Amino acid sequence: MRTGLIYAVIAYTIWGLLPLYWKWFDEMPASEILSHRIVWSFVFVAGIIVFKKRWNELKQTITARATVLPLIYSSLLITANWLIFIWAVNNERAVETSIGYYLTPLINVVLAIIFLREKPVGGQWIAILLAGTAVLLIAFDYGSFPWISVSLALSFGLYGLAKKKLKIDAAIGLVTETMIVLPLAIIYWSYLGMSNLDTAWSLPLSSLLLLLLSGVMTATPLLLFAKAVRKLPLSMIGFVQYIGPTLTLLLSVFVFKETISPVMYISLILIWTALVVYAISSIRIAKAQRLAEAS
Q1: How many other C-beta atoms lie within 10 A of the C-beta of residue 211?
Q2: Is 260 left (phi over 0), alpha (psi -120 to 50) or beta?
């Protein structure tokens, strides 16, 4: 669990800071950025597969009926999540993305209870109640149906569940997911080129090089997340996830200069209180289990 927790913390820290990276390309359409994200993610992870000589393992994965359909499902979910996130960040709506990822842990807890039969106990219920109250305050303060937030929460929550149920290696899973949507990205590139609508290849060299690194920036946290989700309960993953939206929210306010209301600050206090309560409760439960096993 300790290793899984380290993976999760690093992954969510990277995700929380990613808006700084995507803002660099705010003159590009979100769909074009997404196509590059897909292509270069595939290139990066495929390179890992080649280096480790794991093509036979990949072949077995993509030809097995038990894995191919769930991988198509997870691929479509993460692609939709990427598109919504990039569009929101580059349209001055980063605060809404942070709200979405504050919602996701609650979605994870619900999914864990329904599909994985994980049952929160004791202080964990208090943490869930505190976090739920915070999210409701955010939603009411927002004043309208937050479609960006809800879409991000549902797509990533369901993606996490799919990864939890898939018993395959993180790199194999990610290269398969990007391979599934790769033809769509290539077709879109062709359309942009024939219509003279592509903007990537006219970027300054420094920006183009950064865009080519989008595969590394995309795949690294996803690989860490996939490893973490196999080692930790999904409900615990949900609460570690608060690191990401908190960092994004801080960027939104102090770097991107988006407005934030007093209600959001109150909600943040509730959320971090929930994190502390959940962590303390989980540590006590783990100690009790070790003592029971020792006796």
Answers
A1: 22
A2: beta
C-alpha torsion angle, residues 8, 224, 84, 208 (rounded to 10)? 130
CA–CA separation, 42 vs 60, rounded Å? 18
Query: How far apart (Å, rounded) are the C-alpha atoms in residues 118 and 222?
Result: 23
- What's the pLDDT at 190? 93
* CA 219 remoteness from chain centre: 11
Alpha-carbon gap, residue 76 to 82, rounded angstroms: 10
Name residues whose C-beta falls within 8 Å of residue 143's C-beta, 6 or more positions apart in sequence. Answer: none
Residue type, 262: P
In the structure encoding, which two tokens stand for residue 15, read together?
A: 């995700």
Smallest CA-to-CA distance from 99 within 274, 234, 271 is with 271
What token pair was written down for 269?
A: 């206090």
Decide: helix, strand or coil at residue 90. Answer: coil
- Residue 115 DSSP one-character state: I
Instruction: Output the pLDDT for position 223.
Output: 87
pLDDT at 39 over 70: yes
The b/e string for 95-122 (b: 16+ C-beta within 10 A; e otherwise) is bbbbbbbbbbbbbbbebbeeeeebebee
Q: Whole-model pTM?
A: 0.83
pLDDT tens for each residue of 181-197: 999 999 999 999 999 99
